[in-house]
Amino acid sequence: MRKKIIAGNWKMNMTPSEAVELVNTLKPLVDNDEVDVVFCVPSIDIIPVVEAVKGSNIQVGAENMYFEEKGAYTGEISPAMLTDAGIKYVVLGHSERREYFAETSGTVNKKMLKAFEHGITPIMCCGESLEQREQGVTMDFIRQQVKVGFQGVTAEQAKTAVIAYEPIWAIGTGKTATTQQAQEVCKGIRECIAEIYDESVAEAIRIQYGGSVNAETAPDLFAQPDIDGGLVGGASLKPDFGKIVQYKQG
User: The whole model's pTM is what?
Assistant: First the structure.
């Protein structure tokens, strides 16, 4: 059985002092050894949050990372900086990065390879726009994102990766894909991984659903055979995130 992974993506929210306060509020609420709990935080919050989560079950992730070791890349953050600060995960290719900062599947692939090189687990995001869904090309588009993103990634590396399926039309809109829609796409992603590698890799890789996940929708979503947790946006900044992590008890 794949262990569920529930990650909060804080986006551009929380000053360092606010971040520590939020961690202290959430720590007792997300105490659940049955799931991997990850807080993906802005880079300026990483060091105080890593310190604040010590002694808890929470692991800390970054929201982005550059694919070079060091150099003249003003404003970027390197994988070595992240590992030295205690980072275990990194979100790569979020739709907001693709839309606002011109990231492509090719650059995401470079970041994927560099993350593995440094022992950081990538959470690679993929997802379609409303227009693409209405045109019936959802799986064509997502398969392309996955195939390019995993180019050059070994089978052993792929087994440890996380893929987050986030329909763009459901991020921050309050709309959620139906449980059936989410399961259907996550199943398609697993089938795509099986084509690239084999069934054992497809069975090992964890696939999250993201897009307005909340305490009410989490139990049904996480009960699906191909949904291994969630990448949670706005709800991860509130005490309600505890209810999502404790979804079995609700």
Answer: 0.96
- Quote the tokens at residue 157: 């590396």
CA-based nearest residue to 208, from 53, 34, 3, 69? 3
Annotated active-site residue 166? The verdict is: yes
Active-site residue identified among 94, 96, 103, 128: 94
Eight-state DSSP code of residue 1: -
How many other C-beta atoms can be found within 10 angstroms of the C-beta atom of residue 86?
15
Q: Position of tokens 């390197």? A: 78
- Tell me the CA distances in angstroms from 86 to 60, 82, 122, 178, 182, one per residue in order: 8, 6, 15, 36, 32
Instruction: State the DSSP string of 173-192.
Output: SS----HHHHHHHHHHHHHH
Residues of the chain with pLDDT under 50: none
The amino acid at 190: R
What pLDDT is attached to residue 226? Answer: 98
pLDDT in tens, 96-129: 999 999 999 999 999 999 999 999 999 999 999 9
Which candidate in 69, 128, 166, 195 is catalytic? 166
Would residue 156 show up in a list of annotated catalytic residues for this protein? Answer: no
